[in-house]
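Section: Multi-chain targets

For targets with more than one molecule, the full set of components is provided together so that the structure can be written out for the assembly as a whole rather than chain by chain. Components appear in the order listed by the source. The example entry contains two components.
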Amino acid sequence: MNISPKFLLVIAVSTAFNLYAVSSPPASGKIDEILARDWQKRGLTANPAAPDEVFLRRIYLDVVGRIPTSDEAKAFLSSNAPDKRAKLIDALLASDGFVSNYYNYFADLLRLQTDVKGQLTGMAYSQWLKAALAKNQPYDAMVRELLTTDGASWDSGAIGFYMRDQGMPLDHLAATVQVFLGTRIECAQCHNHPFDKWTQMDYYKMAGFTYGMDTKTYGIDFKKAGKSAKAGKKGKMSPEQREDLAAVRQSMQEVMKPLRYMMITEGDNLPKLPHDYKYDDAKPNETVSPKTMFGHDAVVKEGQTRLDAFADWMTDPQNPRFTTVIANRLWKKVMGLGVIEPVDELTDSSAPVNGELLTHLEQTMVANKYDLRAYLKVLFNSEVYQRMPTTKEVTLGDAYYFTGPVMRRMTAEQVWDSSVTLMRGDVDAEVREPNVGIEGRLASLEHLYDMLTSRTMDEMVAAVKSSRTGETEKREAEIKRLTAEMSAARQAGDKDKVREFSAAVARLRKGDRETAFTAILGKTGADEVMDMMKGAGKTKAQKKTKDTIQVSFNAAEEMKKLRAEGLDKAEIRKRIDALKKQAGRGAGQLSAAVRASELPSPAPRGHFLRTFGQSDRETIENATREAAVPQALNLLNGPIANSLLNPATPFMKSVEAAASPAEKIDSIYLALLSRKATADEQKLLQGVMAERGDRAIEDITHSLLNTSSFLFVQ
Amino acid sequence: MNTLFNKADEVSRREFVMRAAKTCLGVTAAPLLLGGRAQAAFEGSSKLKHVPTARNVIYLYMSGGMSHLDTFNCQPGTEEAGPVQHIKTSADGVLLSEYLPNTARQMHNVAIINSMSSTQGAHAQGNYFMHTSYTLRSTIKHPTMGAWLAKYQGRSNPSLPGSVVITNDSKHPGAGFFEAAVAPLIINNPSSGLQNVRRPGSVTESDFDYRLDLAAKMDQKFRAAYDYADVRAYGDIYADAVRMMKSEDLKAFDISAEPADMHELYGSDTFGQGCLLARRLVEHGVRFVEVSLGGWDTHTDNFVRVPENCAKLDKGLAALLGDLEKRGLLQDTLVVLTSEFGRTPKINQNEGRDHYPKAFSSILAGGGIRGGQIYGKTDKGGHEVVENKLLPPDLNATIAYALGLPMDNIIFSPSKRPFTVADKGQPITSLFA
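Its structure, encoded as tokens over all components, is:
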């Protein structure tokens, strides 16, 4: 048996974790029994069993979110072990790729954005999600943590859950109910739900639980700064005093700015009905107390806040929808369609296509204590998962009885991560690398916060005030003078002068900020904080760009070889240039190739990922697999194909290493489709090899990349 | 909407709409469905029907909150005006900030609205409200005007997108909940045009065709095995992509084809180049083009930064209006300039102005607009709107009116919520000639 060291390593890792027994769980068999009875009743036949190569490609994409490397594919296909599928499922579920892949899934569900106000909180949230998946935190515990965590982002990234909808607590509640309870209530925010039973009152009562989470705090109430000074004076302040106080607050705000959107505090605020509330059960503007919209009451136990009680109610196996939603969502992720569709629009009359199956899935979820990997293991080990996909599309709205998985295009992340795999091999472990830049910045914020809270508000006000009497006032006078000069220069049409003055003013303003920092934190403290903030700004993706890809090309060495061949100078120059060009092709793209989970969420507009339908993470599950012209343009003319053909990629190395034309063809197929070429394909492509010579490898690779066989998951 | 209604028979569809209208909106929908005089399905939506006055829109978005006092709402002799001088323009009685000398020569074509007002004072929220007529929500994304236009009237040139947005704002709401087919194409850099429309240098045309042919052969078996619309769609988009690559219209995106004096006229910065691209695109049949200009968030040094920004705006805008007019395109092309809000009339201690949604300005030109007028009014100093207040939905309704879009037509989102273009805004018909 020819198993690559990497494959053995994966197996070793999984054994070390010892998370699962290798044989397929009985719950998998029960799925098949339930389905078999249903098919019999309806006169349906199961799809044929999927051969190894179909299973192989699919299981990699489903569990770790990418196609297997050529070595991984070879190792599995050549193994004769009878339980090799179950073993591979276990190994993949225990690997880093699982974290990367399911991060993408949950980021879409949770609308996780890193490019937002309070970017650091967004990034800490992203780190939190990866960590939760990596330690295999049970789903119910994850949800409880999201619902109840307050405090600062340097303590827990989970606060990103509330910060995501900063200032929109009512919208946030609608999203929470949709994600975790699969129920749509957003209509009821403004009026009773037109198509379901929810009233506006139900909505506000549910919102009562989460409404106390205050996302607008800085952790320090500087807005009242100087109030005590005012009280001391008795009566009204003079305009000068007021201006002075405004200036002090402005300086304080400047110092506090970095702490904005970094913290939430749990209070006991309750929502008020809108001013135009129009139903008879309450008056407009009335305060509403919390009550659950269905199921049992959320009873606050000793030592609990109402949010704790809410989180317990939400994640209780007795909650009529919590378990159904996650069991059904993951079934859909694995099989292509939910047992109930749509997965997040449950009503009292929602009917599963197979009630017994849904019940079994719910029981499996509960029996495995919401351990997502254990639950998925049951699904992946079922016979039905390991069948060929249904060859005819299931029309929207038609019932589907799961005679096999439904075929789907790869998600945007799967296409991207598969390309990354072709270009760089298995880089899944990068998801585990600590993000030094973000951690450093979070630490610097914590430090700032600690320094600020170690002082009383009055001390800080006094410090700022005294600093203003000297430096700041002088600086302000200087700014005034420069601004006047600037106007004059503009009138005179002297653009260079205007620019020069403008820069000088900007420098002075920066000094103003420094003065405020120094006044409050002291010289050493201010320098420390500002250094930390300046230095630690690099993100993970930026950090990686330099050294991961070494395009190996040694001009001197090559030149020596060519000279030895007795070529003339001009010819040598020509050859070297050609080699250089070859070595450099697509190098920029290669070095930027990190897995989707390591890029900002979402990727910027226009990025490959967005072109292929990555969610903008504005609304829940907003990713699409729709075909669009820019996708074709990207694969035809974009940088991926070019980078793939760089001689340093594992892909090109494997093609290079293959001896005969037939083996080269097989190595291309193995890399892109995880199988060898069929006899017909060999015949076609050996013809291409003969006809096209040097161009053939490039032709075949570029063409295969542009097939539906590559883009779809059988 | 289609999937919702396609399967429903006429009776249940009617029931659905009636119920939706009744329960969501508290009105009776009978007149809408049964004909009759009181067609009040979406109470408050404009029912104005008329011949469109504009075919195209060029929408210039001043991102960050453009100071109204230092541009189009001139308040000479007030403390609020700060150091800004005011100049005469080509329109009688219309003054303009000294920062816009070239635009001043175009004012006979322009209607200034000085009575804009918004309810949103933060950038993201204000920007979203202005672009969609709806306030920002976490539960839905609303379409922008270019997407509404494409939704109702399709594309005029099938090989080009219905609308194009030239911006660096990665949060542009685009098609909102509409399908991808009506989404605007986003271009970050007007000079680099469309991405990936040219063959890589190493691939000759015959290589390219050879590979397309080879890909089709390799894919034959797979495509025959799976009867899926998605698989067929990939066949279609590859055909479209190749057609696009070989299309003559692609040159619409290539501003390098413009003579040097055109580049000189519009300015070499991104905004000027964006305006030039907008004009080319409109010439080639793209009907809605947005160009954004950032840098208006002048909390500090307002009187340094506004004139810097105005220099770019002035060159691009004046060039665009003049060029459109010279080419006979201005009469069919509505040029809109707006922003998320204005800036505080009171100058702050950092010589800056802060966010001010209460009163601000926009302009309209071409596309049937009567130039040389000022619509609406603020009090002295630009604090409060005292005459003819417009909210963002009203501005969008005015655009919709010019394009002839049905403002009383309801479109349901996939979550079955009812929406209309311009969300019940009222078009200002008196702006039109």
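Residues 495-535 of chain A form the longest helix (41 residues).
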